[in-house]
Write a structure and sequence with these properties.
Number of strands: 26
Distance between the termini: 55 Å
Helix content: 25-40%
Radius of gyration: 25 Å
Largest sheet: 8 strands, mixed
Shape: globular
Strand content: 25-35%
Number of helices: 17
Strand order of the largest sheet: 13-12-11-16-17-18-26-22
Length: 591
């Protein structure tokens, strides 16, 4: 399939672990638009044990909503007919737990970390990282591999012409574990992406009990990291081994017009497409019940991380344990003690489908979301690093071999933050979503804030592989809701001192240090921001910058003159006063 094909209708589904979501895209006189959306429970588990049943149920809802016949008399999706069905059907999937991988490397901070980035970038969940220097004894590593039963293993280590012995020892460890794949009874796929000089010895050591796939070295030299070949192999083996073992996927592959993509891989693809098409740096986060995925593109370099223990329901107590009660409570503009917080979050963990019933419940949930997003972002920055002291060549990810350098995630260069997941996309007030993103990420300068309206980025990602124009148009018109422009001056100022002035149309707004001000945009207007002479909003200290404010923004211009890093008052009375003032600036209730 190529992007040159002229599709009138595009049907795409995302088979999630609990829900299968379908969207129908139609080419109209004004371009490609989302026509409607349907959903149904995913049916990969017993008793139905066939993922296509959930797909057809979701498509049947679209059929009922549009009046367009989408399924034939046998219940199959109609494709290629002018007056009914769709021109092409596409799908993504994370049903059955998605793609679960173990990565192995010689050195944890070098080859193992490179392997982790390659796996994450290909849409996998990395369930363990094993390295020669990880502090575990050999028998502990063997037992760990045996118990995990990953879908596949990625091996890496050594530059070409470098170490061989450690790679052979790693292969011996894997062979001793006699690993079996999570699904089915076949051979475990192992991708070898290490020193090419060790291929023969590693293959002999692994023997015939595994399916070995050899690709180019992830780190052929100290100055270069090459993730693409390994990522491509991961995707191919995912389709052939993991997808084919799941109930009904063999029938699903016969229905689609292009390869099925893993859900996170598809989200990453549409994020990269957006960054490339608009020539911007993007940060995106998808916060779910059990995990939080973070995606970023800086300077064309794509990174993805998964915080598998940070979520809003099943993993909410992990957020509590990692963050601490104080860090969660600091965001709550209400009198809630530590014991009450712990009890509320434990109840949420054992009753994950419940939703907030009171304003206090909602304030606590959104406080937890701030911490989950913040912690996942810290994890993301720790993997998205550059090298020090060497000239680097980058392909798909960022590269911390050799001496680990600083993160490549530079908030001064960030153009857009996208939030996704129920707590953000379905917040009762769009201002609440903007407020959470502002607190969690502390953007600097000018940064557009947006949310995914109904989480259709996976379907748009797989659509972009065959119809980029359709995917990008629907992304910008129907998927992303622009909340507004965050204006955050950087520099030293005294509390109460005017930090910046904004001229919006003919009206001037002054904002003091420590304050937030939200300026609605009833009509599209030119905005000029003039910072205090000691401060910078992207044009240099004291120099004004301009941008166009659009009336479609759900919240407006959000001027954040709080310090960076953001430090809340320690005294409860002062903290509650500050929180109350900031909530009021957004027009939000606190009691």
């Amino acid at each position: 399939m190529t992007d040159n094909q002229d599709f009138k209708y595009i049907l795409a589904t995302d088979c999630g672990s609990t829900t299968t979501k379908a969207i129908l895209i139609e080419k109209t006189e004004s371009g490609y638009r989302l026509t409607c959306r349907g959903e149904a429970p995913t049916t990969v588990e017993e008793p139905l044990h066939d993922v296509t049943i959930g797909v057809k149920n979701a498509v049947r809802e679209i059929e009922e909503l549009t009046g367009r016949r989408m399924l034939d008399e046998n219940g199959d999706i109609i494709t290629g007919k002018k007056d009914e069905g769709t021109d092409i059907y596409l799908s993504t999937s994370s049903a059955g737990g998605g793609l679960q991988m173990t990565v192995c490397g010689v050195v944890g901070a070098m080859s193992a970390e490179s392997a982790q980035r390659a796996a994450l970038g290909a849409g996998a969940i990395v369930i363990d990282v094993i390295a020669v220097d990880d502090g575990r004894k050999p028998h502990e590593r063997v037992e760990r591999i045996r118990k995990l039963r990953p879908d596949m293993v990625l091996m890496s280590g050594g530059t070409d012409g470098g170490t061989v012995r450690h790679l052979v020892e790693m292969a011996e460890m894997i062979r001793s574990a006699k690993p079996r794949p999570r699904l089915g009874n076949g051979k475990l796929p192992i991708i070898y992406a290490g020193n090419k000089d060790a291929v023969k010895d590693v293959a002999e050591m692994l023997g015939d009990d595994v399916e070995l796939r050899v690709v180019d070295n992830l780190r052929p030299t100290l100055e270069r990291e090459n993730l693409d070949p390994a990522a491509e192999a991961i995707h191919e083996l995912f389709l052939r081994h993991v997808m084919q073992q799941a109930p009904g996927y063999d029938r699903l592959t016969q229905l689609v017009g292009a390869d099925i993509m893993s859900t996170p891989n598809a989200v990453g693809y549409i994020i990269r497409t957006l960054a490339s098409e608009a020539n911007i740096n993007v940060l995106a986060a998808d916060i779910g019940g059990a995990t939080t995925d973070v995606f970023s593109v800086f300077g064309g370099i794509y990174n993805r991380t998964v915080s598998a223990n940070l979520g809003m329901s099943y993993s909410v107590c992990n957020v509590l344990a990692e963050s601490g009660t104080e860090n969660i409570l600091r965001w709550v503009p209400a009198d809630v003690d530590k014991k009450e917080l712990r009890n509320r979050l434990r109840n949420k963990m054992i009753r994950p489908t419940t939703i907030p019933q009171t304003l206090t419940d909602l304030l606590i949930e959104q406080a937890v979301a701030r911490e989950a997003l913040r912690l996942a972002f810290e994890h993301h920055k720790s993997l998205a690093r550059a090298l020090k002291g060497t000239q680097t060549e980058r392909t798909m990810g960022d590269f911390p071999d050799g001496e680990a350098g600083d993160t490549i995630v530079n908030m001064n260069d960030l153009d857009m933050i996208i939030g996704s997941g129920g707590v953000l996309s379905h917040a009762p007030n769009r201002a609440q979503a903007a407020y959470m993103l502002l607190d969690a990420y502390e953007p600097m300068g000018l940064t557009m804030l947006a949310v995914d309206s109904i989480f259709m980025m996976p379907q748009l990602g797989v659509t972009a592989t065959v119809a980029k124009e359709a995917a990008t148009e629907v992304l910008n018109r129907d998927c992303l809701i622009k909340l507004g422009m965050s204006v955050a001056p950087m520099g030293h100022c005294k509390k109460g001192e005017v930090m910046c002035a904004l001229k919006v149309g003919g009206e001037v707004h002054e904002v003091k240090c420590g304050d937030i001000k939200v300026i609605p945009v009833p009509e599209t207007a030119e905005v000029e921001v003039t910072p205090l002479r000691r401060c910078d909003v992207g044009g240099g200290k004291g120099k004004p910058v301009t941008f166009t404010a659009e009336k479609e923004w759900a919240v407006g211009i959000i001027v954040d003159c709080r310090t960076r890093p953001l430090i809340l008052p320690k005294e409860d009375s002062e903290r509650l006063e500050s929180l109350g003032k900031w909530h009021k600036a957004f027009g939000l209730e606190v009691k």
